Amino acid sequence: MWLKFFFLWCVMANVYCWDIFKFSPLPRFDHEWWGPVHLKYQNDTRIRPFQMHFDEGMIQDLRYRLKNHRPFTPPLEGVGFEYGFNTAYLDGWVDYWSDHYPFQKQEDYLNQFPQYKTNIQGLDIHFLWVRPEVPHHIEVVPLLLLHGWPGSVREFYETIPLLTKVSEYRDFAVEVIAPSLPGFGFSDAAIRPGLGATEMGVVLRNLMHRLGFKKFYVQGGDWGGYIGLSIVTLYPKEVLGYHSNLPTSISPSALAIWALGSIYPPLVVDPYLAKRMYPLLNIIYGLTRETGYFHLQATKPDTLGVAMSDSPSGMLAYILQLFSSATRRRFYNRADGGLDEIYTRDELIDNLMIYWITNTFTTSSRIYAETANLRNIKMGVFAIPTPVPTWTIHASDEILYQSPTLLKIKFPNLLNSTILNTGGHFLALELPRVFADDVLHAIEAFRRYRKKNKLGY
């Protein structure tokens, strides 16, 4: 019954969506203004140095809130994380943040890389910009590195030194530009509706132009993957190659082929990976079980934001529960959520600090409402194939896996799909060396591909 329903839904979606965008030109909003109108004609285009700062007043207020929360409701007997963050373990996390998190040490850690701000389309965009020192015969190539939600640029701190390290075995070195997405962390949020993931792609492409890069590589996961998808679709002549740890091909034809593969999976996926895509009902159930937050943030992000902006304990529970479920599926049944097994507490609280001190839980959550809507569907950017050479990597516990058969519908020049037998959704944070090595291999492949096809690199 469920399989028949899903198949019928895919067929209907195929007909409906194809009718929407089969004749639609690519949208153009290269200069849409998202900031205060009065600043439009006196825009400051300077690139200004920036550092994060943990203000003492903010720290004292945060500690007060952490220490004076109401008693947490006890969990049900014998449960893990099935109902969300198990409150039997929440006091330990709250106490650590309040009394043991080394604020000054972590502020220094977060300021280890050069950071800047510049105004793009009315928004001050914050970004890390890490440039290697290289011999004269080594070419330096730019990589736009994009995070998602509920992550931040903090995800990349361990992998950036590996990405930017100069090697005698490569004829290039990488400089990393890692922005905070608009509305996230230290980047401004839009003051009017309409800034979804596709529009963010335009803002960040314009950031690269501001920095002097007319052509560049793109890497993205989570929302960064969707934003990267938008950039390579809107500006295929500007992107030298696209790497993603959460690639998606969600055109109607891809969904229909995915559904048809339920009858005979080898038509769609290598047999040893079939369990990552089938049985389809298991995939649908797993996504439904873990994506309640998506529906809430796609419909009422501001209401949710009132609670999260007021209670650091609540924000911790909400965000870290998502880190748990997206890191390992088996952590669903563990009372501690498995968080200490994969990450350090300082790593996770660094990320929380970026949301807390900037008060951007609400504005970052709006990316769901601004993207998961008919306006975005009708643009059809997610379904239009792109010629940009693409390389993907797939962690074993990533929230979604699609085989090359499906990915090539969106990315016909898919050069490689790296399959991991470990790892989860926050791959750069969890496995920084694996992540960096794969990105560097991808850039090497992109350069060979472009040279072979005389595309320039």
Automatic annotation (TrEMBL):
<keyword id="KW-0378">Hydrolase</keyword>
<keyword id="KW-0058">Aromatic hydrocarbons catabolism</keyword>
<feature type="active site" description="Nucleophile">
    <location>
        <position position="222"/>
    </location>
</feature>
<dbReference type="Pfam" id="PF06441">
    <property type="entry name" value="EHN"/>
</dbReference>
<feature type="domain" description="Epoxide hydrolase N-terminal">
    <location>
        <begin position="47"/>
        <end position="156"/>
    </location>
</feature>
<dbReference type="InterPro" id="IPR016292">
    <property type="entry name" value="Epoxide_hydrolase"/>
</dbReference>
<dbReference type="InterPro" id="IPR010497">
    <property type="entry name" value="Epoxide_hydro_N"/>
</dbReference>
<keyword id="KW-0732">Signal</keyword>
<keyword id="KW-0472">Membrane</keyword>
<dbReference type="InterPro" id="IPR029058">
    <property type="entry name" value="AB_hydrolase_fold"/>
</dbReference>
<protein>
    <recommendedName>
        <fullName>Epoxide hydrolase</fullName>
        <ecNumber>3.3.2.9</ecNumber>
    </recommendedName>
</protein>
<feature type="signal peptide">
    <location>
        <begin position="1"/>
        <end position="17"/>
    </location>
</feature>
<feature type="active site" description="Proton donor">
    <location>
        <position position="368"/>
    </location>
</feature>
<comment type="similarity">
    <text>Belongs to the peptidase S33 family.</text>
</comment>
<keyword id="KW-0256">Endoplasmic reticulum</keyword>
<feature type="active site" description="Proton acceptor">
    <location>
        <position position="425"/>
    </location>
</feature>
<dbReference type="GO" id="GO:0005789">
    <property type="term" value="C:endoplasmic reticulum membrane"/>
</dbReference>
<dbReference type="InterPro" id="IPR000639">
    <property type="entry name" value="Epox_hydrolase-like"/>
</dbReference>
<dbReference type="GO" id="GO:0097176">
    <property type="term" value="P:epoxide metabolic process"/>
</dbReference>
<dbReference type="GO" id="GO:0033961">
    <property type="term" value="F:cis-stilbene-oxide hydrolase activity"/>
</dbReference>
<comment type="function">
    <text>Catalyzes juvenile hormone hydrolysis.</text>
</comment>
